[in-house]
Amino acid sequence: MRVYGALFLIAGISFVALPGLVLDLLRIPAALLPGSGPLAGGEPSLWLGLTGSLMAVIAYLSLSLARDPLQPIAWNALVLSKALSTGFFAIFAATEANTLYLTAALVDGVICAHIARLRGGALSRQGAEDPWRSRAAEHGGPFYEVWFLKLNDPVSRDAFWARYTVSRGPGGALAACWFVFFDAGRRRVEQGRWEVPADEAGLDQGDTLFRMPSGDLERGRASGEGEGARWDLAWEPGAAPSFDFVPEHLYRFGIAGSRYYSALSEGRFRGSVEIGGTRREITDAPGGVGHIWGTRMADRWRWAHAVLDDPHEAEGSVVFELLSGRPRARGPLGRSFTLGHLWFRGRHYASTGFLRSLCSNRTRATDDGWEFEVRFDGLVARGRCAPAADLVAEVDYADPDGRPLVCRNSKTGSLTLELRSTAGESLGTFETTDTAAVETVQRVAAQ
Q: SS3 letters for 18-50?
């Protein structure tokens, strides 16, 4: 980016200080290009001044990114400027029948594509390094961010779900802490929610990711306290890595309105959960932590996550997670994308590519849940999942623009996973009857 910054700066100074020389230099390739038209001007003008000021801005952005590449807004502005100049040159080439403009469009198009590639690499490395970090400061305007944790008590078979959120929208900026407790013994769901203005919450303060009067979330600990509930939990990560679900380029180009990281795809939880005055001690409970952020939610989605016992691996587990969602887009991009991650016998498999997630992977509704098929490199995952019919929490979500959605979630669902090699060899069948997270979310129709 330093090279780009220097080139943009030199070009901007030349446009302002030496317009005649710049024009003479441009006439050289114009004379060699068939179909190029004459170039007029060369004297100082308003347009050259505006061009020089724009070059100064993009030179500054380039040099700033060379020092600190983790600036999404700066990357977006730089890519936008080159994309617009490419488009304008292409329009001029068509309307003026001038091949010099076409050449300029090709040059700026190559620069735009290269900068976009550099942007993707810089920001994807950023995300890969820290899937936990808050992204709220990087976005202006409507935005939401969520961290959630879920665990399954191996003794009582109860499950717990906590959600820490911040959102900005037409109704203002709010921070909230939610909980849902799935009581397997009494077959009941208990839930609650506490909200405060967002300025009463803190984000990304050292090891503390989220803090409000009724709940804190750190990189290895979560707590909450309010009417009817209290919890204090810590965890240790398992062998499975973080799962990055939504490719950065889908988010960058606006196809996906949100990013999702399974920041802790497999962990072991300990601590306590108190619901309605009854305290429960948690020891060695499998679970995970997710992190979502974006400017809009999908129209609908299905999500499942399970940590499954592997009888052939005494110390290992199979971790499977699936997300199938339809973005808020029209035309072919209004179809559902189905993405999956798998941790299996010491290896991480990801199926998040554009064509595979759009064309090869799929889910299909059944009477009590849904079936799935996900193609990974070297193997295929097929199976089915279903919520526990009498242990489903129904919670309301709201897009940053205020549009409502309804979420139906069970953390005590069933999931069966069959793995085969692409040659058809069976690699095993793994299942749980009551520890899978199974969720469906749909947008509420306008009244």
A: CHHHHHHHHHHHHHHCCCCCCCCCCCCCHHHHH
Residue among 290, 287, 307 nearest 244 (CA): 290
Q: Both tokens of residue 287? A: 């679970």
Which domain covers residue 97, as residue numbers? 2-129
Whether pLDDT at 15 is above 70? no
374, two tokens: 């996900």
Task: Report the DSSP beta bridge partners of residue 430.
Answer: 417
Average pLDDT, stretch 154-183?
94
Element containing residue 351 per DSSP (H, E):
strand 347-351
Query: Does an H or E element contain 116, and which?
Result: helix 99-129
Q: Which letter, b or e, does each residue of 224-234 get, where b requires 16 or more Cβ atoms within 10 Å of its Cβ?
A: beeeebbbbbe
Q: How would you classify the pairing of strands 188-197 and 172-183?
A: antiparallel
**Gap between the Cα atoms of 303 and 324, Å rounded:** 6
CA distances from 355 to 116, 335, 338 (A): 20, 12, 10
Number of domains in the chain: 2
Least confident of 185-199, 216-230, 304-318: 304-318
For 272-287, the pLDDT digits (tens) are: 999 999 999 999 999 9
Residues 91 and 183 reside in one and the same domain:
no
Question: How is residue 226 written in tokens?
Answer: 């309010």
Q: Which residue has the higher pLDDT, 371 or 121?
A: 371
Using alpha carbons, select from 409, 406, 410, 388 the residue that is nearest to residue 397: 406
On whether both 405 and 382 belong to a single domain, the answer is yes
> 99, 129, 159: which is the final residue of a domain?
129
Give SS3 for 332. Answer: helix
My answer on whether 188 and 249 are in the same domain is yes
Q: What is the model's pTM?
A: 0.72
Boundary (domain end) residue, out of 67, 95, 129:
129
Does residue 228 sit in the same domain as residue 118?
Answer: no
CATH code at position 373: 2.40.370.10
Interval 167-172 mean pLDDT: 86
Whether 216 and 324 map to the same domain: the answer is yes
> Do 83 and 160 sit in the same domain of this protein?
no
Give the SS3 label for residue 424. coil
Asked whether residue 262 falls in the same domain as residue 179, the answer is yes
Residues forming a β-bridge with 259: 293
Amino acid in the structure at residue 48? L
Q: Which residues, at least 6 apart from 398, have a Cβ–Cβ distance to it below 8 Å?
A: 167, 169, 404, 405
